[in-house]
Structure formats: C-alpha cells, structure tokens
Amino acid sequence: MQKRVLNHRYEIERRIGEGGMARVYLGRDLRLNRRVAIKALHEHYASDMTFLQRFHHEAQAAAGLRHPCIVNVYDVGQDGDIHYIVMEYVEGSDLKSLLLRNGPLPIDQAVAIAEQVADGLEAAHRMGMVHRDVKPQNILVSPSGEVKITDFGIAKSSLSTALTETGVTFGTADYLSPEQARGLSATPRSDIYALGVTLYEMLTGRLPFTGENAVAVAMQHVSVDPPPPRMFNAQIPSRLEELVLAALSKNPDERPASAREFAQMLRTYRVASQEATVVRPAPRPPQPRPVAGVAAAAAANAPARTPLPPPRSPVVTQAPPSSGGRDLGVFLLGMMFIGLILGVVYLAATGTFDNLFQSGGGTRPPPIVLPEPIEEPTATPEPQMAIVPDVIGLDERSAIAAIEGAGLLPYAELPRASDVVSAGLVFDQFPPASTVVTASTVVTYVVSTGPESIPLPDVVTMRGIDAEFQLRSLGFQVQVVSAPDRLSAGFVFRTDPPAGTPLRRGDPVTIFVSIGDKVRMPDVTGLAEEEAIRRIEIAGLSWSYSDYQGCDKLGDLCDRYAPGVVVSSIPRGGDLVDRGSPVTLGVRAP
C-alpha cells in the first residue's frame, strides 16, 4: 500500500501511539531525510475552530522551546482535514516501560533522571508553559542515558489564557496534583508534584497512591499523606526521602519554589552523595558524656583547663666534699621539729587543750552561730479554669454569647463553605467542646457560607473517561449515557445540565458519550417501496438494492403484503449502523 505524504514532505510510515487528542506516527521528513514523529489530531477536532486555534497556538509556543531535555517541535501544519505537528523522533524507551521491565532504578540513576526532567520543566516554565501531564510515559530515556520530556499536547501557555481548553485531557490520576484534582488550574508547582510522584516511583517501583478507580486515587492525592518511600526501599537515604516528600506536599507553597530550585536540590544531593562515597570522613573523637545537675552548670561556665606540662626529669647532683658533720645536725633538727608537730596534733585530737582551759581558768571563745535564712512564703494562687462550650450548629451571635459566658474570648475566622452545615451557622471550632482550659483562652470558630457552588466545567469533546474523572473529582454524581453522534466514538458530545450551570457537590450530572457517527435504521416494513427509500435517505442511509420476491419465497407473508410493499430490510429496523451505510429491501413482487 502506498504511504501517505503530508504536504509533499512528511511521509507517514506506521502508527506508534495514540492518545485522547491525537495519533502519533513514525514518519520521515523527505526534504531533510530524517526520521520524525508526526502527531495528527483526531478527525472530529477538524471542525472545532476554537480548538484548532488553540492547537496551533500551543504548537507554535512549544516550537519555541529549545532545551536538551525537551523533545523539539519542528513544524505544525494542515493537509486537507489532517492537522499535525512534526516533532523530533527519539530512539530509546519511555521511563514507564523501563520501570515495568526493571523495577526500581538505582538511586543515582533515578536522581539523575529527575534532575534532567526538572531542568527541562524549568525551561518550559520560563516560557510560560505548564506541562500538566508529567509522568513516566512522557519521559523518554535514550540508551546513552539522555532524558527528554515529550507530549506537551495538553500543556497550557500563558499566551493563551483567553482561549478555551475544550478537548484538553484532564491528566493522569496517578500523577495528578491535589489542586488539579480539585478542578483548579495547574501551575509550575503542579508539574513539580507530578515529578515528585515520578521520582517516588523510580525509587520504590510503586506509586504512592493506588485505588479501585481514578477518582479514588485522585481523592488520596487531595487528602492522604504519601507513605514514606523508605518503607518500600530501605536503601533510600533520609535526605533524599525528605526531598521527595517536599515535592509531594499537599500545599503548593510548601513544595520547591520552582523546577530550577528542585533541580538544584537534587544536584546538590547527588554531588554530596558522590563525594561521600569517594572521601570517607575521619571518625570523630569520643565526646565526654554530659554532666548532670549542678556539676553540669559549673562545667559549662568553667574556663578551659590548661593542659599540665609533662613531668620534669629529676636532676642528679653530687654532694660537695667534707660536709658530713653538718648534714647530721640538720637531720637531727628536722626530726625534733616533726616530733613537736605530732605532739600538738595529738593533744588537739584528745581534747587536752579544752581541759587545760577549764583547769587554768582560761576562757575558750564561744562558737560563732550564723543566723538561719528566713524563708519568705511563696504565693501559689491556682489559675481559674473553664470548660469550652459546644458552639457548632449555633448562629454567630449565640456562639459569641456562649463563649463569653464561659469566661473565654471568641475569635471568628473567615467564613467558609460547608456541605453539611447551613449558611450562617458555626461548623468548626477550636479548642473542641468540653476541653478544660484557663480562663480568657481564645476560642476560634468558623461560620458556614453553605454548600459551595461550582460552575459545571465544559467537558464536551473530552474523552468520556477523562470527563467522568474530572466531574467526580469535583464531587458530582455522574451518569454516563452512550449514544450515537457525529463525534468520534468515546468522546463527550453533550452534558445535562450544560456547561457553566452552578451546581453543588453531590448534584447529578449526565454526560453523553458518542458511540460513533451512527444512525438508527427506520422500520420500513409494510411501506411502499418508494416511501421506504425516502425514509431511508432521510435517516442518513442509502438505498442500494431491492430484492423482488414472489409468493414462492414469501410463503404465508404473501397474503399479508400487497405487491410493491416492503416485507423486510437489511439492516433491520431499529438497528444502529454507520451513517451512509447501504440498505437492501425485500419487496413483494407484482
């Protein structure tokens, strides 16, 4: 079969992938003789001028991205009803396939890949582009280890804020940021969150959140803390675990401020870990144990002790001649002096001196008695305690009265929406009711503004599975109805109520998903042949042939139908068939 060539330049070889908006083909640029990837939009987008405007605008913005870690966009164009983007073709494997084949990656390799992705995202963010669907499937790894981000197909440019986002895929639930799961706009920090999930998966071989369906996973992204990755891989250093969990913070403000900052954090960690494996630090000398009590305070305030000098060597001298008689005299005097001292000590120890004072009329000086310190009584008044009243369900005036009546101080936070408590009533307080606190403690309360009203987003032309996921994540009850439409099969062509309708969480929404451009075959049995053909054409089908049947074929039916009347049809009445399908009629012969 002859290969198709777009605009006499891009030859399509074979299909290599498909997504919600487009199919991806391996092709060749005949002019430059190089392999390329060609992304062609699904046919039903060709008639959506608003989407086409946005498609070409985003393609031009993506074409302006030039970074070693981003797949290059070479061209954007149209050939008949095919709108396409021509991109760099990258040899290698996507990261998801790599993980499925090999399991968790070595720590150094995982960090290096995340670092390159963060560098590429930073380049896109500086250009005002948010990827919005960062995941291993959109990260290509070449055999040499080079990393490239692909599929900016649902990226949003700051230059296109005035354009609608009809047909944009909502994102993959496994890597979805909490703010996107709530239906809010994606920001550069949303991409950082998705990269954090990807790094988590590279290190552990598993996702932080799993569930029975996409909605269950999205709700965990919103409200459940991820299990520490070291639970599944004890080889992960604690410092690296901190970086991963920082990227997975529920609050975007608690994540790294930018992709550049996250890349720098990963780079600093990687360099430090490499140096630690090359140069092992010398062991620290043993530290003295801490001193307890008063001795510890004294040790803390004492000046540094000067080390004692080493003992001096003994000096040996020779005695001068003819000094023996003088040495003997000195020795005898020393012995007498020592005996005198020992005698005084003995008399003092046996109390002889006291007896001498008493017998000799001497007076021993009285002992000095110091006055004992007078301890002043310490005042220990007990604080007055109070019990926090229960103000949930009260109106604000009653809540204030109850708090002040308990001797406490009321403080109102900004009112917030509540799906449980009616507007004007308190739905939250702190400290909780019945808590025992000191008097004059501040009690904070929040007044409900009632159930939150959310405009129904426009999900028409989105894939049915993505539309259902987005609406359920906003809290709506979704019913899916399959019906024929000119839109391609699997895409939403209508919602009830329509987009923009203000709804509350829990309200029902019906989405109508196309089963393809099909029409229902009318029941033409019993009609005259000409009338049957007219109705077939009105229904969007084409009459191809009439089989005239005599009574020998019809049997009992021959008496029920007059000549020239339709007795059967292929397809049968009520069947759903592709628009324009041929119809064969069985007609009683004259």
The fourth-level CATH homologous superfamily of the largest domain is Transferase(Phosphotransferase) domain 1
Strand residues, percent: 15-25%
Give helix % range: 25-40%
Number of helices: 15
CATH class assignment of the largest domain: Mainly Alpha
Main sheet overview? 6 strands, antiparallel
> In what order do the strands lie side by side in the largest sheet?
1-2-3-4-6-5
Let me know the average pLDDT. Answer: 81
* CATH fold-level topology of the largest domain: Transferase(Phosphotransferase), domain 1
Shape: flat
Compute the gyration radius: what is it?
45 Å
Q: How many DSSP-defined strands?
A: 26
Distance between the termini: 47 Å
Structurally, the number of domains stands at 5
At CATH level 2, the architecture of the largest domain is Orthogonal Bundle
Low-confidence segments, ≥5 residues, pLDDT <50? 158-170, 282-324, 359-363
- What structural class is derived from the secondary structure elements? alpha+beta
